[in-house]
Specification:
Elements: H1 2-12, H2 21-41, E1 61-62, H3 63-66, E2 86-93, E3 99-106, E4 116-120, H4 127-134, H5 136-143, E5 146-150, H6 162-174, E6 185-190, H7 193-204, E7 210-214, H8 222-229, E8 246-250, H9 255-267, E9 270-275, E10 282-286, E11 304-308, H10 316-325, E12 330-333, E13 340-343, E14 352-359, E15 362-369, H11 372-375, E16 382-388, H12 395-402, H13 404-411, E17 414-418, E18 421-422, E19 431-432, H14 438-451, E20 454-463, H15 466-477, E21 484-488, E22 508-513, H16 529-539, E23 552-554, E24 557-563, E25 569-576, H17 585-595, E26 598-600, E27 606-608, E28 611-612
Parallel strand pairs: 1-2, 4-5, 4-6, 6-7, 7-8, 8-11, 16-17, 16-20, 20-21, 21-22, 22-25
Antiparallel strand pairs: 2-3, 3-5, 9-10, 10-11, 12-13, 14-15, 15-17, 18-19, 23-24, 24-25, 26-27, 27-28
Length: 619
């Protein structure tokens, strides 16, 4: 099209000169061939055009100019974003009263709830050109992730850029226009931007899952001492004690570099044993015996990498390795005062398959994990758990962080991770669960029974936060579909639920965290736990000791069991010490242990360990 316009302009200048049709076409062919040679040497941008091909980037447009109040939701891509395939400028208001600009690149391949990398480009570098030359755009396109680009003001990075990096972090964490994955935020800095990123790492390591800083030869080591006395979000833990994967790059081992390496080795519980590879001169790994916490929820997975010589650090091959083999291999998942670092593998790498189906005219997705013993046929007729994510989440990210697949592999059951529906037509897609999703669950359930070796008497539901609402709604309204429910982080009152079916026994477990924002003093559900459990007890005519004495304790898990006249637990409340608004991988074991004891016969009868449940006046 550009060629045609240029050709037409060229011949318009001929004025009234008359040229035959054949001569015109011949001239056009010659002109096009000549122009092709010119375009090979000079990109289209030289002519003022904007393109988004693999080695081109359009000029940035203001992000707010693209945002609309609402969008028309595509039923074949309901969680898509209108920002896909764009490069945007972002105006940031800093706490010190000034304003700065950052840039956001959103690839055409962007998925829902995907990682985001903040990059401090060297002073003097144009941000868009830098991500082209360094390979970051290619990495973003390949992985479907977003980039936020930070640039120096007035041609140089200042010694203190905390106001700017604070604003960038606030923009990322706010997710105002795009639902990114906050457990997978990373930051990288280059040239004189490396010191800015290293300073941010000392202050904000709790918020990120990995850092890389290439050019810290002259870093101000006084900031290391400041971090040793600065408190983190966890009581008694200094910022210098917060683990986070760190890749350090410098021309040589200067005194600051040596101090940085030792600082991050200590923060990450790394030993002195060192290895290397083609990208890193020194690699330090966490030492297993230095682990301070349980290795199910909290994993020692934060290594320290050191590259000496910066020539290759801005090359595409190096960048690909940096992201694909270092940064994205760790996530900081919701868990406690300091969210837990956990090793990350993509769902494809872990054998989790994405499935889709049309439900009520909209394309819906769910992810399925089948344990090895079921895949190879040694185990058949196994249970299935449907695990529902929280509000704004997805089946993909819940599969990555919940730990259900690990338990499924060990206990030999199938687990399904559905993705919720779009909550509304606002510009930013955000998922929720609604009563309208009951048909979707019914269709998924039928699909799984048709296509997998599943024991229909052992179908279970679980979920976290909004997923607790969904799983509890299924348990309350359609007990015939499942055998038991165990969910976390939300208060679901039977008396506030429509169409409750009490004709069948429904074993129910509810787990809540000591530090869950909704249940601590000032939270909307503070003090309401007894009332919720009380309604379930009334349903089964279960009297109980009203004291605070728990039935059992296992580490941080405290259980309160309420039993019928047979001595069978029908209602369990679990209180988890230190847990925030989250579902923990070690908590998942307790949820499955509860549910797996129950089954439902074809006539609706509930069984506990193959014993019919009769000692209740369920009504």
């Amino acid at each position: 099209m550009v060629y045609d316009l240029l050709f037409q302009a060229r011949f318009f200048k001929l004025g009234t000169e008359r040229i035959g049709k054949e001569k015109v076409m011949k001239a056009k062919r010659v002109f096009t061939a000549t122009l092709s040679l010119i375009m090979a040497a000079f990109p289209l941008t030289a002519f003022g055009a904007t393109v988004t091909s693999g080695n081109q980037l359009q000029d940035p447009v203001p992000l707010t100019s693209v945002v609309q109040e609402t969008v028309t939701v595509d039923p074949n891509n309901p969680l898509g974003t209108a920002l896909a395939g764009g490069y945007y400028s972002v105006d940031l208001a800093l706490e010190n009263g000034s304003n700065r600009t950052a840039y956001q690149y959103v690839p055409k391949t962007v998925g829902y709830r995907q990682p985001e990398v903040a990059i401090a480009v060297p002073s003097g570098a144009e941000a868009g050109q830098f991500i082209l030359d360094s390979g970051w755009k290619a990495v973003a396109d390949e992985n479907g992730i977003c980039l936020v680009l930070m640039t120096a003001e007035n041609g140089a990075w200042k010694a203190d850029e905390s106001a700017y990096t604070d604003a960038v972090v606030e923009f990322m964490d706010g997710r105002k226009y795009l639902q990114t994955q906050d457990s997978a935020f990373y930051m990288a800095g280059y040239g004189d931007g490396a010191n800015t990123v290293m300073s941010a790492a000392l202050d904000k390591s709790e918020l990120f899952a990995g850092f890389a800083a290439f050019g810290v030869d002259n870093f101000d080591v006084r900031l290391l001492e400041a971090a040793k006395s600065a408190p983190s979000n966890a009581k008694g833990v200094m910022k210098s004690e917060v683990a986070v994967p760190m890749w350090i790059g410098a021309e040589s081992v200067t005194q600051p570099v040596n101090q940085l390496v030792e600082f991050w080795k200590q923060a990450n519980s790394c030993g002195n044993e060192v290895s290397s590879n083609q990208y890193a001169s020194m690699i330090y790994q966490p030492v297993g015996y230095l682990a301070k916490t349980n290795q199910i929820t909290y994993q020692d997975c934060s290594k320290v990498m050191v590259t000496l010589g910066l020539d290759q650090t801005q090359k595409p091959e190096f960048t690909s390795n940096l992201y694909n083999n270092f940064l994205k291999r760790t996530r900081r998942q919701d868990s406690g005062d300091i969210n837990a670092l956990r090793a990350f593998g993509t769902n494809a790498e872990r054998g989790i398959e994405r499935k889709t189906m049309k439900s009520n005219g909209t394309l819906r997705e769910f992810y399925v994990y089948v344990p090895t013993a079921v895949k190879n046929g040694s185990m058949k007729n196994v249970p299935v758990v449907f695990a529902f994510h929280g509000g704004g989440g997805s089946g993909e990210e819940f599969a990555a962080r919940s730990g259900w697949d690990k338990v499924a592999e060990e206990r030999n059951f199938i687990v399904v991770f559905p993705t919720g529906c779009r909550s509304d037509s606002k510009f930013k897609a955000s998922t929720t669960w609604k009563v309208d999703d009951l048909p979707f669950f019914s269709e998924m359930r039928a699909y799984m029974l048709r296509n997998y070796s599943i024991d229909a008497s052992r179908i279970y539901v679980s979920g976290q936060s909004m997923g607790c609402f969904m799983s509890s709604t299924i348990a309350l309204t359609h007990p015939e579909w499942i055998a038991a429910c165990a969910a976390t982080s939300a208060r679901v009152m039977p008396s506030e639920t429509a169409n409750v079916n009490t004709s069948l026994v429904m074993p129910y477990m509810w787990s809540v965290g000591e530090k869950d924002k909704y249940f601590v003093e000032g939270g909307k559900d503070y003090g309401k736990v007894p009332a919720c459990i009380g309604e379930w007890r009334v349903r089964y005519d279960i009297s109980a000791d009203e004291s605070n004495t728990y039935t059992y304790q296992n580490g941080n898990f405290h259980g309160y069991d309420f039993k019928n006249t047979q001595g069978i637990t029908l209602v369990r409340e679990q209180w988890v010490k230190d847990k925030i608004h989250a579902m923990l991988p070690d908590e998942v074991y307790t949820l499955y242990d509860f549910m797996s004891s129950y089954s439902r016969g074809s006539d609706g009868t509930s069984y506990y360990m193959n014993m019919p449940i009769t000692g209740t006046s369920d009504h």
